[in-house]
Design goal:
mainly alpha; 9 helices; Rhomboid-like fold; 54% helix
Length: 241
Amino acid sequence: MFVPIYDLNPLKRIRFQYVTVALILANVMVFAFEQVGLDSGTIASLGVVPAELFQAHVLGAGAAPVSSDALPIPELTLFTYMFLHSDPFHLLGNMIFLWVFGDNVEDAMGHLRFIVFYLSCGVAGALTHAWMSPESTAPLIGASGAVAGVIAAYIMLHPYIRVWVLAFKIIPLRISAALALGAWILTQLVMVALPHAGPVAWWAHIGGLVAGALLICVLRSPGVTLFQRPSPPAPAVAPEA
């Protein structure tokens, strides 16, 4: 519904969002390598396959053997999957959200804790997807679970910040983060309730959202409050004659 473009929310605690930029560059570089150096089988082996996680007793006992070219240690796919994307639009959609909202979440945590936060949300998204589709042999790829965690953290930190978005991808609007991101979250909840919601791993988004909402409460830096209101502008000073 809304595609974010820019938020009016300057950094307060860090000089630059190094981790956010590094994550975006890593995703772009991996995607470029996908196009020239990885075949579809290799990409699939780096994705999260729920049936393989259960077969390897990562989530529980497997019901039947699964034949695939998965990594020797399936647990590693819980991390590798979030740096892979199926097409440029899949990549662009995730990276736009990460670019607009990741810097302020990183600002609220610091660099190291933000890395832990991002990866944890991605893992939570993959595990939630696997629990809801335990027999699936389709590989899950994409940063959506991790980015969903960033979205949850941002809306809990800065719901009143004004964000420039494209409504229906064409109409520029300036609205609150609560409205822009709240609409995105509502969409995810509606889609998981539908019996046939297409190929998107909606439960991975839900898992990332829940993880992000919980982790921001414990990983934010001391003094960082939730549901912050923007600081009022400084009063104008009348010039002296």
